[in-house]
Design a protein that fits this description.
This protein has about 450 residues and is α/β, with parallel strands linked by helices. Among the domains are: about 5-55 and about 95-130 and about 290-355, FAD/NAD(P)-binding domain; about 135-285, FAD/NAD(P)-binding domain. About 30% of the residues lie in helices and about 25% in strands. It has a 5-stranded parallel sheet with strand order 5-2-1-9-20, covered by helices on one side. Strand 12 (about 220-225), helix 7 (about 235-250) and strand 13 (about 250-255) form a beta-alpha-beta unit. The longest helix has 20 residues, at about 150-170. It is globular, with a radius of gyration of 23 Å. The chain binds flavin-adenine dinucleotide.
Amino acid sequence: MSAIFAETRPDEASAVVEAPRRERKRVVVIGAGFAGIAAARALRHADVDVALIDRRNHHIFQPLLYQVATAVLSPAEIAAPIRQLEVKQRNLSVLLAEVTGVDVATRTIEASSPGVGVRKIAYDYMVIATGARPSYFGHDEFAQFAPGLKNLSDAETIRAKILGAFELAATTEDESERARQMTFVLVGAGPTGVELAASLAQMVRVTLRGNFRRIDPAQASIILLDAGKRVLPSFAESLSAKVTRRLTKLGVKVLTGVKVETVDAEGVVAGGNRIPSATVLWTAGVAASPIPKMLGTKTDRAGRALVDPFLEVADAPGVFVVGDAASVFQNEHPVPGVAQAAIQQGHYVGRLIARELKGRKVKRPFRYFDRGNMAVVGKNYAVLERGWVRTSGFLTWLVWALVHILALPQLQNRLRVQRQWLWSYVTGQRSSRLIPEPPRGAGSGPDLPRAP
Ligand SMILES: Cc1cc2nc3c(=O)[nH]c(=O)nc-3n(C[C@H](O)[C@H](O)[C@H](O)COP(=O)(O)OP(=O)(O)OC[C@H]3O[C@@H](n4cnc5c(N)ncnc54)[C@H](O)[C@@H]3O)c2cc1C
């Protein structure tokens, strides 16, 4: 255990413990996603101890989660161990723990690790980069029937649900149940919903072709629902229209302007109509993690902390919120909740703290530089919007592939993803078609979704 994390024993779980008389100041970064890692890395040459805390031991490249959910990639291909950062950065210590409390008055956070208990860690600066989670817009009861896509276990749950539905469709004698198993409803037509729907369409028509004697997977019905007027609302209307056409060509039924009223074990009720479906996936919205609310500062409707132009929290000097957990405005428009914004914010705050430690003041507020927005719609097709530049098609898809390969966290990820993509591109096959077995003792057979 690094000296930076003086720890409590489980039986003295709530005692405030910290390394006595710290020689150097300490920056605690909560969350090792895009924003947290960028903040920590920007402090690598600073004369400060950096504590990077995450409840997971791995960083996830979320833009490719949908490919794990649709069996193109396996989880390890889009994840990297956070602890590896200690090798690269001498002033950094990684702690696997869930932050459960933040007290700006005493400048401490409370973190809980399995087997260790709760410990309190003091900070001089704190960077909150805890990201977002799926939001069911006040209907959390939908979550048990419609998983969101935010981490690797969500992706694996979705993959098992999709593959399991075909297995059950192939075994049931009941026509209507077979149709229900082969109906997939995706709620939310933002980039994740669109990418997931297109990848699923490709999978049922190409990858699973000829795999079942009793059913034809290509007959599966894939429905993409959204209450809004069009798919990809953050893109220009012309690109939304192209994407709708492309999805339709792939066999996805796009239903916009349709509000989901209920999600239950039988399917969804949307726009007054019941759609029987065994696989409903939620890609509709996100809300910030609960940590910003613990600051006692103002938050927006999605729970994101309202920060000043330097990304600092009002009345809490040295406390910053970055990435999806922060509500940041530029030219009266919200900065989008995307990876590049999170990286830029984390980097900015890391640099700001490094300068402050040298006794210099940062005068320039944070500015988001938009490098462009992309979404991929199946094989050979992507859309890109950057300022007034709007492109779509095969070349854009190549750019998308290149950008994503380069953005993966480690060389190992880049090589493995390239190899898998090449294999899938040439053969149409997907190597990660696994339905996990239930843990030993939990019954026999694979972990299939419920059959009636
Ligand atoms: C499916 C999906 C697809 C996406 N596709 C794209 C895309 O194509 N392009 C794009 O630019 N953006 C995309 N995004 C958005 C992008 O991934 C996010 O904007 C970005 O991850 C935000 O970075 P962040 O660091 O704020 O949060 P995250 O990357 O979510 O990281 C938050 C970290 O905080 C940790 N954490 C949370 N709470 C606690 C706690 N209490 N204690 C300890 N640790 C905690 C989490 O474990 C996590 O590691 C996508 C997001 C999703 C979910």
